Please model this.
Amino acid sequence: MTGDTWSWDETLFAGTAAHYTRGRPPYAPGLARALAEALGLDGRGRLLDVGCGPGTLALGLAHLFAEVVGVDPDAGMIAEARRAGAGEPKATWVRARAEELPPGLGTFTLATFGQSFHWMDRDLVAATVRGLLRPGGALAHISDLKGEARPTEGLPHPPVPHAEIGELVRRYLGPVRRAGQGLLPHGTPDGEAAVLARAGFNGPQRIVVPGGRPLERTADDAVAGVFSLSFSAPHLFAERGPAFEADLRRLLARASPSGLFSERQPSSEVFVWRTTRER
Model:
């Protein structure tokens, strides 16, 4: 990675795709409306979703565009996106790394990164994507609102015991965060604003879309959430996978004998970066 200490390998999200949609909480309601209002999206234009995963964000925004292209390097993610988007004729799915976007994609009104930019050679990708945006186009980085308090008081079921699950993962995989075949002792890189400014983007405009509505989660949802994460992807446990899952399910059963959990939906945080109209 240019300027970063971590390098991509194709096993990063190996085996997570089947768990991703079930395991990850949805984006906040109102996200599409907030982007439409901020960027004047009107059902025309084209969207490029970079690191699209199973197509969650691209499909959620498809009604705002005439065409949507989702790109992801993981074969399982692209297969899930094609399955989920089987009824969406606007959507095209391309297996490729963001650093190696194939020629002929055309130009786009908006490029989105749904919690994916930190896994890339960010300087290279920012410059490449800027070159694919039409004059006046924009890049939006979308994630859960970090550091948000999501109180569980008054909810009908116990919260998912995330801290205990983290301890269990570390017991099996060690104290240093795993990432594909390597380790991330210092986490993923920050400094996104400087990267995008270097690439010629202006901004950002920050938008927070409120979450907070109660979500009911099952034990199976919680297990899927664990296996959807890069640092606890199924392949990392190798032959110890069945034992880990059995321990995980016992932990969840102790936390909620009914097998039901409650949590509040995260708010979504959007940083919008714009190009100038002169290219």
The chain is about 30% helix and 25% strand.
